[in-house]
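Q: I'm writing up a methods section and want to include an example of the input and output format. Could you take the sequence below and give the corresponding predicted structure tokens, formatted cleanly so I can copy it straight into the document?
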Amino acid sequence: METEIGGAPRATDEPSQPAGGWRHVAIHVGVLVLFGALAVAMTWPLATDLSHTLLSWGDPVFQAWTMAWDVHAWRTDPLRVFDANIFYPYRNTLAFADHLFGQAALVAPVLLATGNVILADNLAVLLALALSGFAMYLLVVDLTGSRLAGVVAGVAYAYLPARMAHLEHLNLLSAQWLPLAVLTARRALRGNSFRWAVALGAVIVAQGLFGVYYLMFLVPLLGFVVGSYLLWHPTRASLIATAKIAAAGLVATLVLLPTLLPYLEVNTELSIQRTMGEVVKWSAQASDYLAVHPYNRLYGGLLSERFHRHLEQDLFPGVLLVVLGLIGLAYRRLGWERWMLLIVVVGSLVLSFGPEAEFGGRSVPLPYRLVYELVPGFKAVRVPARLGGLLAPVGLAALAGLGVALIQQRLGMLAGSEVRRHLVTATLAGILAVGILAEGAMAWPLPDPLPATAAEARRADYDWLAEHRVPALELPMGEGLIASAWPNFWSTFHWAPLVNGYSSFAPPAYYPLRDAMRDFPSRETIRLLQGIGVRAVLYHADTATTAERDALLRRVEDFPELQVELAAPPDYVITVAPDPWLWELAEAVPDGAAVDLPQLDADPIALGLLGAILQRNGHTVYGQGTVEYWTPPPAPPGTCYAVLPRDTAPDAAGYPGASAVASREGLTLYRAAGCAE
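A: Here is the clean output for your methods example:
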């Protein structure tokens, strides 16, 4: 609604809204159901077998495990939910990726009622798409009062080609809190409202529970919203409203602190962060905004062949979305909001190009470098391009909603009767929505069905492990950049601690240990497994080789520490005699004492795993050397305990006069001279 002030049009605080009450709620529910139906249609044929078929055998397998672990841990030991059962003996292993607490809570009834993690993951995907579209619908209705504009904008936001390229990534599909953050922040700023500032704080908390990745995206998003408002309204009231928002953000962060501290601990203990070179590699190029995933039905054959580099850099937003967004800039019923939305788009695009750009053969720093250095958590962000593909659409889809509302107004003036006006505008909105859906539609090939329960799997080895719940290793271990997700998935049948794992990060000793385990069984591999407390090896043999000809099974007979406990070809359970010598070394260190590993390179696997056990027991670990990407900080003066290879004199390692406390399997724990016992 506009009012005339001094002859110039000026937007009032709120646009005219549709009728409230139960009718208002019923319409919203109907729209939500519509978005749910669209989610089913846009992921078809997934809905034909939600209980046994995942979108792929990659990240969806991992995400199904993540939500199942969350619910399992909440029921059994909620205070240790971050100590997931993968990557044993490392701690906080859930914090190697998004914890998905919010998504797990949504599908917890399904998990508790059926135990079907595949069904739970598929329902979470459908809910994520539906809720993302619905959230953008709410934002645009709040801005324009037009439900049709809201529906079109919601469709554009939920099903843009860049998002559909990430159908495998549940945390990136769960994008509903970003538009709601804009909605609540706008309300808090425009009305200097404490109530809406509290609502924004609730949105921040919800985003933190649904995904840490998008929680970091909220920092630049809210910066764009608040910054643009202050630029347009440099008043005392604006500063007070900003202070309320800052206070709400601080309180929300404190509420989220228990879920954020494990990520900080992982970053501190293992130095998990993305290098500048890695960030540059995954930054956007201008041509990426014409790139689509090869599975895109409409543009895959045209744009993919020419511009596609990787799905992370498939950033094409769709022609209709851009056109409607440009039209939306002419929506004069709103003042600063349309320019704020443009700033969200442009600012996100600039950040997507990463920390530097080449101009005239010279490297020029870009604003992302400041974000990388100053914003907590951004050093763990691998793909700046996602800011352009997934954050910029928050502004672009909302602008598209303004564009639809503007077209709706103009057509309404020309249509004549009210019935005809509604018919014309609804038809146009339907055409636009169908066109946008066509631009985002994917021909996604589904893999073969999976067993969803232990009864369906009929796996004697997992039944054995479910009964004994001992730390275990599965062989062969997965190959590739990040190990196979299958041990994660199968562990939902037994929940035993596993050395295996799959996540956004792998702990530093994991790949060296995986490489060493190709020689299992050998004296060295048995030494390592006993040291960390592994009691069982689940061996999945090649079905083309008989047990008599299987080299691994034949070698087991050479080691008295090993015994074939269960033979259910091609699956075997090989038990390992207990000798947790690495744990015993760690337990010889007094509670809370720091430990130095000054010769980490001398035995990187054993010392790297010892470091994990020490950290799990609450010790600070220092050292010299590197295991994969882990380079612990050097020990400060006064460090009392150090672990050295047995043939290394403590004097040579900087601990003259140190006394031996414990010694096992070639490693000795020393106490520095002058330190009390």
